[in-house]
Specification:
The chain is an alpha/beta fold. The protein contains ten helices and twelve strands.
Length: about 270
């Protein structure tokens, strides 16, 4: 499976320079997978409608995240630049449905959208003010073709679970990593040269995975706000740490990963 690393969003969160310098500049790393003529996206970042109207992200979200809205950063435009028709993207696997991961779903209205059932429920029937703020109904108004999964369907995969995806190759599956949101998942990819696990927002910087060192101070504070279930999210981190020798782990908002994968620093 050929893996293209895309950055489908760029944010300069307003309070980060003071409180979380590690997250001063933040990418939204997504994957475009090519497999025997099939195109699969992992997360979408922001979409073309968000670029046209940033208030789709909500006043609070747009203000706090401070995204730089460039049409060229959308997954749709990047798919085109790679020489594909966006209509060829038949499947999108979402780590979760926060606005910075699902904003581009409407750019691929005919794609099946694979997500943990709990995550779809949280996004479509938010149960708390925090959930009502983070998920944007406009991102789902086109009626995505949902394919949902129960964590109970999972089989063991190292210390975690793997959930096969209907109609997709065996080497591509969901790995529940709940904690950041109700139904947050990683997405595992067999690249042919080893396993890659897109961990979404299960961690933000690699330091969080290093035994003993823990998160930089600002990041530790930030995740206490960002994760709906911090103890569960920290438990997942311990499990992820145990994979480090066998699986390449990437996080959506890690600017150092961006530099490594795209070969240039983030603006
Ligand atoms: Zn995010």
């Amino acid at each position: 499976m050929k893996v293209h690393f895309l950055n489908c969003g760029l944010m300069h969160p307003r309070l980060a320079p003071v409180f979380v310098p590690h997250l001063e500049r933040v990418p939204c790393l997504c994957l475009l997978l090519e497999d025997e003529g099939r195109l699969v996206l992992v997360d979408t970042g922001f979409g073309t409608l968000d670029v046209a109207d940033p208030l789709r992200l909500g006043r609070f979200g747009a203000c706090l995240l401070n995204p730089r809205m460039e049409p060229g950063l959308t997954a749709r435009e990047q798919v085109k630049r790679l020489g594909f028709d966006p209509g060829e993207v038949g499947d999108i696997i979402c780590t979760h449905l926060d606005r910075d991961h699902a904003g581009g779903l409407s750019d691929f209205p005919h794609a099946r959208v694979h997500v943990l059932k709990e995550e779809r429920e949280a996004a479509l029937s938010p149960g708390t003010p925090r959930e009502r703020e983070r998920y944007r109904p406009c991102h789902f108004a086109h009626g995505p073709l949902w394919e949902t999964y129960d964590e109970g369907e999972g089989e063991e995969w190292w210390d975690l679970k793997r959930i096969p995806l209907r109609g997709l190759p065996e080497g591509l599956f969901l790995v529940p990593l709940r904690g950041h949101t109700r139904g947050h998942c990683g997405v595992a990819v067999d690249t042919g040269e080893g396993w890659l696990l897109h961990c979404g927002d299960a961690f933000y910087v690699k330091e969080e995975l290093r035994e003993g060192s823990g998160a930089p101070l600002g990041v530790a504070g930030f995740r206490a706000v960002a994760h709906v279930n911090l103890p569960l999210a920290l438990y997942q981190l311990v499990k992820l740490r145990s994979l480090l020798d066998d699986v390449v782990l990437i996080a959506a908002h890690d600017q150092f990963e961006y530099r490594y994968r795209l070969g240039r620093p983030l603006d």
